[in-house]
Design a protein that fits this description.
single chain, Aminopeptidase
């Protein structure tokens, strides 16, 4: 099901995006770095209208600080949250052990771009087999299931199997 289009993002984003699949987009920064962003429906929590968000540096190219990158990402997120019933999850990639840095960057972007009177961000970390994972939930403050979604998210993480003993709020 299509939840967002390239036209919606391109109406306000500094970097033009192209749709590469349903709810998946790509763009190139002024430095030539290629990114993909997108939303995939999630069924793990048993909540309707919840999606995983991803952002990928396609070529794993080193980047400089680029405010237009975060602005493009948050235009996509604002369009995603045009429906009050949608919620979003993210899990920071850990392929290079920089997941904590990614989480801090996303929290920083959220602090600088999100409409805090509209959205709430809840971040969590947990350990599994000596690796630390960072995850987050974003939802609208007027979501009719606001409390239930937060409780389900926290409950899911708190009740992970025994091999996740160090889940922290």
């Amino acid at each position: 099901m299509r939840i967002i289009t390239a036209d919606q993002i391109n109406a306000r984003a500094p970097y033009p995006v192209i749709e590469v699949a349903e709810n998946a987009f790509a763009f190139i920064t002024n430095e030539g770095v290629r990114y993909s962003i997108g939303f995939m429906e999630d069924s793990n929590l048993g909540i309707s209208d919840i999606y995983h968000f991803y952002i990928t540096n396609i070529d794993n190219q080193k980047t400089q600080h680029d405010p237009l990158l975060s602005e493009t990402v948050f235009v996509a997120l604002e369009e995603f949250f045009n429906s009050s019933n949608r919620s979003m999850l993210y899990l920071c990639d850990m392929h290079d052990n920089r997941q904590a840095v990614r989480n801090r960057l996303f929290v920083y972007w959220f602090a600088n771009h999100a409409k805090h009177n509209l959205l709430t961000l809840i971040t969590r970390e947990f350990e599994y087999q000596k690796d630390v994972y960072y995850t987050g939930l974003i939802l609208r403050n007027d979501n009719p299931q606001y409390s239930d979604i937060i409780n389900t998210f926290n409950g899911f993480l708190n009740n992970l199997p025994n091999e996740f003993p160090n889940s922290k709020e």
